[in-house]
Amino acid sequence: MGVKDEVKYVEIVYRGIFQKRLAKYIAEGIVYTAREMGRPALSFGRYGDSPERNGVPAKYYVGIGNGVNEEDLIGYSTRVEPDLVDAIIVLDDTLLKGVESWAWQGVQPINLKLKNNGTMLVTSTKRINELLKMIPKKDFNWTLGVINTEPSFSGLWAFKDDLTMEKVWGGLAKLRPDIIDLDHLIKYVSKKQDANKRISAVKEAYSSVDYRSVMKGEGIDFVYNPPRLLTWQEMLEGTVIPAVPRGKRNELFKRGTTKFERPTVDFDTCIKCKLCWIYCPDECFDETPDGYYDIAYDYCVGCGICADVCPVKDCIVMVDESMFADYRRPYEMWKENKAKYKEWLKNVRQARKERVYVPGLGR
Amino acid sequence: MTEVKKLVEKEVLMNGTQAVAHAAMYADVDVVAAYPIRPYTEVMDTISKLIADGELDAEFIVAEGEHGQFETVKHASLAGARTLVGSSGVGWLYGMEAIVVTATDRAPVVAIIGNRALDDPGAYGVEHNDALMVRDVGWLLVWVDTAQEAFDTTLIAYRVAEDQRVLLPLGISMDGGFLTHSEQIVRLPPKELVKNFLPPYNRGKYLVHPDNPITVAPQVNEDWVMEIRRQHEEAMERARGVIVEAYEEFKKVFGRYPGSTNELQMPENPFVEPYMIDDAEVVLIGMGTVSKPMKVAIKNMRRQGYKVGMLRIRWFRPFPTQDVIKYLANSRVVCVVDRDYSMGSPNRGGVVYHEIRSSLYDLDQRPRVINFIGGLGGREITIQDVEKITKIGYEHRDTPITKPVYWVGVRGDPW
Ligand code: SF4
Ligand code: SF4
Known about the structure:
The complex is a heterodimer of chains A (363) and B (415).
Chain A lengths: L6 E9 L4 H17 L4 E5 L11 E9 L4 H8 L7 E6 L23 E11 L3 H5 L9 E7 L15 H12 L6 H9 L4 H14 L1 E5 L46 E5 L9 H5 L5 E3 L5 E3 L9 H5 L6 E5 L9 H7 L1 H13 L13
Parallel strand pairs in A: 1-4, 4-5, 5-6
Antiparallel strand pairs in A: 1-3, 2-3, 6-7, 8-11, 9-10
Chain B lengths: L1 H5 L3 E5 L1 H11 L4 E4 L6 H12 L6 E4 L3 H13 L4 E5 L1 H6 L1 H9 L5 E6 L13 H4 L7 E4 L3 H16 L7 E6 L6 E7 L2 H7 L27 H30 L17 E4 L6 E5 L4 H13 L4 E6 L1 E3 L3 H8 L4 E6 L12 H10 L7 E6 L9 H13 L9 E3 L8
Parallel strand pairs in B: 2-3, 2-4, 4-5, 5-7, 6-7, 10-11, 10-13, 13-14, 14-15
Antiparallel strand pairs in B: 1-8, 6-12, 9-11
The structure holds iron/sulfur cluster (2 copies).
């Protein structure tokens, strides 16, 4: 029962604070274009998320009535999040590894809510096949599209009008004309300031979006086991939760999906000063028996403070998160084969991109 | 219909808080006091931008906390300024001393309460207990459930609160997240029409001004208090009539019923919104956005043969006792969904539940009343939940109630 095809939902996955306005404006454009097409539409954030916290994966939604009136659309959409979505827009390809938008739900696959035959659109400079190495498989066919562009960080206190919105809309219009079509999109964009350059960006994305059908079973394994939350009889009273024993971490509350950059450590130059261990706000460093400091990447939020405080030049360097497929610990890799680690370190650091300066990033 | 269309100047995508901010701009507020707390904050974000953009000329005062914020508007209001203020959750409670005296000093401050769970645990989601903290101290309280209604009700709020027969502060409650942060299309009327609807704020002989030397709130102790409370209660009662007038006038000026749009036909009762209630054996009751999944569920259930309807409580203070009686007297079972609770209350239920039970007590033939506590801290009440509530209600058409209160979807209780 329920929504069926009477409502189409678009999910926009973004990095909290850095892409908040971008996501909201993209949603707004889809709503207005759908209305140009004569359909009721609305948008809402996944309110339990923390879109105002640095880098936390967060979600925005658009609901479009497909034969239902506005009142029913609001009725269906008075939700924290829809059960299923027709299209997912991913604004930073490092989110593909999984999102933990808020505590106590575990890391969820990026395409958890995708409908059968749904569409996912990613902004990335990577090719489709490369992206599929990070995207979980589904037991149905779906479509993956790539808008060839760097992630745009247009956050809470600044909006970078770099036409990312127009590119995303253009790509969506190409892949899902049933959600928004090109004609009505252009009609909407024409009403904006500097309409001509915006229309060109829409058309350019429309004709250049790279996409293909992804077969059932194609992609990586990702078994999502939502954590079992305690009943009221099982919980401690008075909003009390027991401490995590010394040396352990909270298995239910990993924060690793928050980062789009991660620190890499050159253990050969480390002077064992312990500053990284002291300063890391998320206590990600573990002392090793030989006095080095290993990083639990699945808890690291990528704030960059360790890189800031490390007194040795280039001992800790922040590196683009998209260079990594997993959260394997660096010390383990180093111990296994130091020469190989050094070579690997060189490679990932070479590919390092200079990001736009975002206040609050710890740099 | 075409005539109505003319009365809409533009259609804009807005969330509930932005809708209120725009209405306050239309109402040409003079003083705004702000102190941030989610989810109400965006009202102030929007207002400050409207001021910065030159669209609104008002004093925008950032207070050092909620107490200062509410004191600021109270004093401004007594001196004749139209004011806007607001808060959420524990922020609203932190201002409580000032909030209480705003009512006793009869300052018609309009406040937005972005309903939010009371800490702990820290949660941003909707729960109605924050606003309900003022239910007994003489604030007018209204709940809105769409962005359009938020806009329209803000205009109505100034008209009702500032009426010289009333002069009471007024809280507009809206569900955190589901309305404060959900964007819907709002039909904005032409600005000039607002002048026809909303007269300038005039305190008359109660204005604090050098030309009108009066003192407000002297120390009076036991000699005056009972009488002051009695007057206050009369003003609350007079507000009923003023609210009806305001809705009538709104319809005349803007060509539509408050909260309705061109397409949506809303039943015309200011205090409650009845929905498919005429022949309903089971009636669902709720405040705020829970009415939205309720309506969809009711349509579904009606198709399956259930005679179910809804009564949304819009105005909570003054409480619409007569309307509740009128609409519920012929039903068999009433299912009250509370997005709040009253710990240790007579039936261990919610606040609205107890008000409804109390309203129905004097009827010879009373419907059975069941309570559902749900959606606390922003948890969803889904269409499926509402259907289940309806079925539980239906089962009790002919059987006495053994379990008066259900907790909807709480982990650990069967549901
Ligand atoms: S970037 Fe460094 S300091 Fe920040 S969370 Fe990760 S390990 Fe800790
Ligand atoms: S701060 Fe740098 S040098 Fe100091 S222990 Fe950490 S990695 Fe080694």
